[in-house]
């Protein structure tokens, strides 16, 4: 009974996270500041109500599936075999903080190779095509997965819990940061600051343009947070930097 109650509670929280953050991003960029941010828009295409309804439906189903995988681990005896801990002093505050970017590094590696697998010609049209129906993505596209893909995406949390020590604070903070970054990647607008282009971070981190190109071209730019796997495997879209510079130069009137 407790397992069921926790599942419903965490599912509700995760769905609210999706709705609130996606809605806020959409309201701000696609409605309120639509005209003033026109130069930051990556594609000229419009987004239909049917697209958004489809994305919300698939995202809520995905949220339920991914939440179930987490609850199945942390609220059953399986948790005793994981590295989840509850006392900060066990690993120090430094590790509490460091575990978040380390988790993101592991997640990015997992995501890159899962993503490449989902683009295999025998898998793509049966599974990953659901996500790629959003070829002009918006914040509601973030969790719009086929149920099988949702399982694959959701398995990262159990995987992390068996690989590195994670405190609940680190885990929940990571999940929140991960979704915000995901929503930014699907935003449809490039909002990176002007200084970002000439910083070392540009060579490391993904941008909204980066992931948008993946949706519009269907190939390349498979990474989630970082560029390094795409650069190592030569799968980064060759037009990325030029498109990014065009949009940013237009934004800042260079």
From TrEMBL:
Example of a GO MF term: iron ion binding
UniProt main location, coarse: membrane
Keyword terms of this UniProt record: Membrane, Transmembrane, Transmembrane helix
Top-rank lineage group of the source organism: Bacteria
Keyword Transcription regulation applies: no
Cell compartment(s), UniProt: Membrane
Signal peptide start-end: none
Pfam families assigned: FA_hydroxylase
Transmembrane portions of the chain: 15-33, 54-73, 93-113, 143-165, 171-189
Gene Ontology BP terms: lipid biosynthetic process
Domain Fatty acid hydroxylase: from-to ranges: 102-235
UniProt xrefs under InterPro entries: Fatty_acid_hydroxylase (IPR006694), Sterol_Desaturase_Related (IPR050307)
GO cellular component: membrane
Protein name: C-5 sterol desaturase
């Amino acid at each position: 009974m407790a397992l069921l109650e926790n599942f419903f509670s965490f599912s509700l929280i995760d769905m609210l996270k999706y709705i609130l953050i996606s809605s806020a991003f959409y309201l701000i960029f696609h409605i309120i500041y639509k005209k003033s941010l026109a130069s930051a828009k990556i594609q000229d295409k419009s987004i239909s109500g049917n697209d958004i309804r489809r994305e919300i439906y698939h995202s809520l189903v995905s949220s339920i599936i991914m939440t179930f995988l987490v609850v199945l681990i942390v609220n059953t005896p399986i948790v005793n075999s994981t590295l989840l801990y509850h006392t900060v002093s066990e690993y120090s505050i430094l590790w509490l903080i460091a575990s978040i970017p380390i988790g993101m590094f592991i997640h990015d590696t997992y995501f890159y190779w899962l993503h490449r697998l989902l683009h295999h010609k025998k898998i793509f049209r049966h599974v990953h095509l659901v996500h790629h129906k959003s070829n002009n993505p918006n914040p509601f596209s973030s969790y719009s997965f086929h149920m099988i893909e949702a399982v694959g995406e959701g398995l990262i949390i159990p995987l992390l819990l068996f690989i590195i020590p994670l405190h609940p604070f680190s885990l929940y903070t990571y999940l929140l940061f991960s979704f915000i970054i995901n929503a930014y990647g699907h935003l449809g607008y490039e909002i990176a600051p002007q200084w970002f282009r000439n910083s070392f971070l540009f060579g490391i981190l993904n941008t909204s343009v980066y992931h948008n190109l993946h949706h519009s071209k269907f190939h390349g730019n498979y990474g989630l947070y970082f560029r390094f796997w795409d650069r190592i495997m030569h799968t980064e879209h060759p037009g990325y930097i030029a498109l990014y510079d065009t949009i940013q130069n237009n934004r800042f009137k260079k």
